[in-house]
Specification:
Layout lengths: L16 H14 L8 E6 L2 E8 L2 H12 L6 E4 L2 E2 L8 H11 L7 E6 L2 E8 L2 H12 L6 E4 L2 E2 L1
Parallel strand pairs: 2-3, 2-4, 6-7, 6-8
Antiparallel strand pairs: 1-2, 5-6
Length: 153
Amino acid sequence: MVEELKVELHPTMVRSDEDIAKAAAMRLDWEVSVPRDAVKIKVENGWVTLTGEVDWHYQKDAAERHIHGLYGVVGVLNETTIKPRADATNIGHNIDLALHRSWFDPKTITVTTQGGKVKLTGSVETPGDRYVAGTTAWGAPGATEVENDLIIA
């Protein structure tokens, strides 16, 4: 079964794709957490697609977060990628150290890596702990993807 969902904005919020693209470009130019000219913008029927490369996950998130709030934006597809780092060999070890410096028990979280891809498995006590562990993994230099498979137990 295929469902088609059409988002219709209130008439006062409708803007042309060109207006949305200009506003999005200006918003990103003013956003200090997104490197200038790193993220490209394409708008089609109110949907904004972000592409390009940034150094850190928080930069990718910031670009998307600041575009969502613009008038006329129906949705955002964030295809921005994180630049791989030349030395991602110790990324798993660095994440292990960072997690275990916190309140996490080293026996409950396993970190596996392949290049810049990180996978967290095991268990934590609260949703907040799961979030912190994922954020910690994203903060490691060289992390280009994080799969947070931690369960709350």
